[in-house]
Each structure stands twice: as structure tokens, then as C-alpha cells.
Amino acid sequence: MHKVRDALLEVVIILLVGGLIGAVLAIVSNLFVMGVQWFGLQREVSDLLSLTIGGQTISFSSVLFLWAAAAVVVVLKTGFGIGRWAGPADSMYAAHQVNEPLDIKTGLTSTLAAFASASGGGSVGQYGPIVHFGATMGIWVKRFVSSRLSHEVYLGCGVAAAISAGFNAPIAGVIFAHEAILRHFSVRAIAPITVASVSASALGNQWFPHRTTFEISSVVPPLAEIVPVLVVLAPMFSLIAVCFMWALRYSAQSAAKIKTSPILLPFIAATICGLVGVWIPQILGLGISSINDMIAGEFALSLLLTVLIAKVLMTALCIGFGLFGGVFSPSLFIGVAAGALAGQLLVMFGFADIASIISVAGMAAVSSAVIGAPVSAVLIILELTQSYQYAVAVMIAVMVCSLITHRLFGHSIFDRQLLDRGIDLIKGREAIALSQQSIASFASQDYVRAEPTTTGNQLRQEMKSRGHTEAYVVDDGGQLLGKVSIYEAIECADGSISDFMDTRPMTLYAHNSLAEAMAKVSQFVGESLPVVNAETGKLEGSLAEGALFQAVIDVQNRARTLERT
Asked: Is this prediction's pTM over 0.85?
């Protein structure tokens, strides 16, 4: 009965947590998109700052809207004291460790900043910020619910709900949370994440009935006709994805080197993007209508090439210079433009008109390479089109593109962002846990301490009575002067040990992590190592090899247990 009661209680908690997170994300995701679309409509119909040039009236309202967006972003960042905007990369890192949890204030403020940027017409997306908002919401809910579920499960619930609500794709939401964020499959996590994902999709459809975001026809030519074409085009999609991600990194690095106030950077991006948007309005905002038009084949060849280049450059500029937003939607736009461009070129050379399926394949391939979730991208297409043939065709392009991109650039733009911060998720939770745990808490006070004037015979007797073969020589202020082994003490006899000690022993510093300590002691032979305060030089304790190895094993076991439950 006790087990039955616990099982029923856990089921109730899962339903409550998953349902709550799913409901919140259904509301936030839909209101986010509806709000951005409303502001976009106001921008399009606005005649503010209209000038007549050569008999043609041109509206520069896009610049004004983007200036307003930049002002809001700057006010949010300075007013709330945000050092760096948070996105999916931070969600991924938070799921892999517990020492640096997600900051609720930063997560919520980042979502507002992304909404302002997209509403003003910035060439940014909504899915990344909403995914991080979902992760933040999951961690926030955990504060008020006591359960056996770990923090990463709550985080995964929010991520799955965000993708499910954004694409109306609950299966893809579940897979995305495991594939891109958690990076492992957990039996305990699958149930609450599924509840959150299905709830977000179901409640979103109930409360916000509207047509699907992307209008994709389910009619597809025979696979034998399109698969060879997609295999050939996949390297091109990969190259475009790599160029896009390098542009994002280069823009951020360039912005950091510009000798001007950080407050001015968003306004620089707003001005340039707004002026480009006057002549190429398709690249402004989320670009959902433009994506549908490109899939339908309504863009001319020259316009496709123009918007492809402009979207890459303007998205990199906006995000790099502080107009915060997501990269998922822009990658969808870029992928569709690349696919539609390739499709029209094939038609010009006498091939059958398969531009629609190539456009969709390009959208899935480029976006999957950027976010590092190939399986999720295929499932999104499957759930959007309800077509098995579409999913199989797209899968070929996605997998080949992801393979090449992984070789040329890395797993995703988010992994690269973390690598730039010195965090390598490829090494797994164990490596991260070892790098976060300092050795200070493992330093032992069970060591032989001697003064420089101590004789060898005196020290030998002390070492014999304490059962040690090594001793540390310190001065009156506690500074480490050297290390003496039992053999050196015997050789010293009645002489002063200061003449026989090792003045440059291998030393660990209190701030060193377990990972750093393991690297240092790989060539060490002896009883223990001194643990010294790097700032004061004072001896804080010693660390035996056995104690170090046991600490590493304990941390690794905790990380493995987290993944297996």
C-alpha cells in the first residue's frame, strides 16, 4: 500500500506540474506571436517619417519602430542589471549541472527583450527566447513543488511545452527536450515532459484556435525523384548553416571590440536593419508570412537571393549588437530561402518542379544544423504536414546536412556559444560536475607540520608516531616553504630540515577543481599534495591521492545516477 500511495502521489504531481507548465507556455507562446504580429501590422500600415523621393513616397517607419525596440531593450538591460541575455544555451548548461541554476529575473527579462526586438521589426526569432522562458518557468515551478523529480525534469517540461505550443507539435516537443537540452533519455523524465508537451498543444489549440503557422502542402512527388536531389543539395544547406552561425559569432565578437558605449550598439543595429528593411521588408520581424510565400513559390529568383543574404547579415547584426532574440526562426527563413532558390534553379535547368518540397527540406536541414536537433526537425515537419513521405524526404537532407555541419562547425550554435565560455557539453555531466567542484572542501588537516628549524631526527619521530611519510614545512605565518619526505628526514639527521626540503613541491590550490587536480596528479608519486591558498600562499591542508580519487568517483556516480533515473 505504501508503494501504491507513493506511485499515485507521483502521478498526481506529474499531471499538475506538466499541466501547469503546459498551460503557461500555451498562453505565453501564442500571446508572444500574436503580439509581434500585431506590432508588425502597425509598422506596415504606419506612414510615420514618410519621404517623397523621385515622386515615390517611402516610409521609414521601420527605423522608428526599431529605435523604439532598441530603447526598450536598453532600458530592460540597464534597469534590471542584466549582464548578459539568456537563451537556449543557458538552458542546456543548467540542465547539465546544479551549481549555477537559471536566474529567474534574467530569464523573464530576456523574454521581454526578445519580444521588444521582434515587435519592433528586428531580424530575430521567437522560439529560442520562448524555449528559455519555458526552462525558466520549469525551474520556478520547482521552487513551490516538492517531489522526487530533479530540476532538469522541470526544465525539460518547460522546453517541451515551448516547442509544442510554438509548432503545435507535441511529439517533437518531447523529443527536442531530450535531444537538444537534456541530451539523454530518462524514464522518470518522459512522463512529466510528455504531459507538459501535450497540454501545451491541446490548450493552445483550445484557447487560441487559428491556422497553422506554416502552410505546407502534404502532396509530395515520388521519393525516387527527390531523394537524389536532396542528397546533392544537403552540402549546400550545410554550408549556408555554417555561414550563418559564423556570421552570428563574428558579429558578437566585432561588437565586443567596438570602442563605444554598449548602450549605443542596439541603436546601431536598429538603424542599419531598419534602413535595409525599408527596401527589403521581408527580412523584418519573424518572417512567417514570407516563409509561407517562399514555400508557395511566390518569390522571384532575384528576390530569393536578396532576402537570403540580407536575412543572414541582419540577423547576425541584430543579435550580435544587442537586439536580443532567437536564431531558430531566422534559420527557418534562411533554409526556406535556400531551398526555394535551389528549386527554382533546378526548374530553369529542366528539372521537375519540386521547389516546394526542397524549400521545406531546406528549412528543416538548416534549422536542425543550427539548433542541433535533427530528429526534432524531422518530427516537426511530420506533425506539420501529417505526411510520412514528407518526413522521409526531409530526413535525408537533415541528416546529411547535420553530419557535415557537425564536422565543419560543431553540434550547434548553442554548443559553440558555451564553448566560447569554456563549457564543453560534449564531455557530459561528469566532466562539468568535476570542473565545478573545488578541492578546498576535501583538504585534510591530518598532516605533519614542521618549522624550518626542526631537525631531521625530530621530524622523523613525529612522522613515525603519526603514521606519515611526508611533512610540510611552514613559517610562523602559515606560509608553505617546502615539503620533506621520510627519506630526506633520515638523511638530514640532526641538521635543519630547511637544508633538505623540496622548496618547489607539486602544489594544489584551494580554488582548483577536481578536474584540474586530476590533471595535475597524473604524474604524481607520493603520499599527498599540499593545498595552498593562491592569494595568501598559506597552507590550508593536504590531499591524499586516495581521497582525491574517491571524491572524483563520488561526483561521477552522482552524475551517472541523475542520467539513469
From this structure: yes
